[in-house]
């Protein structure tokens, strides 16, 4: 009878060991996933911010170039078609604001 109790206790301890090992493995996997996912998310967010900033810079550069072109165009030529061309450039610059 005592042997069966000891065997039962040993079985319980072995089962508890296995369960603790499984819990530890699961916890480690979850920690790894959490760490990798948070790093991946941060990298993704940084890429999005950099892309947005790059887009803003390119739009501002394009606006600046367009305004310089319009100014040089105005000083080099005269006439009604010049006004239409300047209006077209202005329309293009305004459409850049909507991007």
What does this structure look like?
The protein is mainly α and 99 residues long. It contains two helices and no strands. Helix 1 runs antiparallel to helix 2. The relative contact order is 0.06.
Structural class: mainly alpha
The helix/strand series, from N terminus to C terminus, equals HH
Report Rg.
35 Å
**Overall body shape:** rod-shaped
| Largest sheet: number of strands, sense, barrel closure | none
Mean pLDDT: 85
- Helical content stands at over 70%
Strand tally = 0
> pLDDT under 50 segments (min length 5)?
none
Distance between the termini: 83 Å
Percent of sequence in beta strands = under 5%
Number of helices: 2
Write the layout of secondary structure elements.
Blueprint: H1 2-76, H2 80-97
What tags apply to this protein structure?
single chain; 99 residues; mainly alpha; 2 helices; 94% helix; 0% strand; rod-shaped
């Amino acid at each position: 009878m005592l042997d069966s109790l000891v065997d039962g206790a040993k079985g319980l301890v072995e089962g508890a060991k296995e369960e603790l090992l499984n819990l530890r493995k699961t916890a480690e996997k979850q920690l790894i996933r959490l760490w990798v996912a948070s790093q991946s998310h941060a990298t993704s967010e940084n890429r999005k911010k950099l892309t947005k900033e790059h887009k803003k810079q390119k739009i501002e550069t394009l606006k600046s170039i367009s305004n310089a072109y319009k100014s040089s165009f105005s000083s080099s030529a005269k006439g009604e078609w010049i006004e239409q061309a300047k209006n077209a450039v202005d329309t293009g610059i305004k459409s850049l604001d909507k991007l």
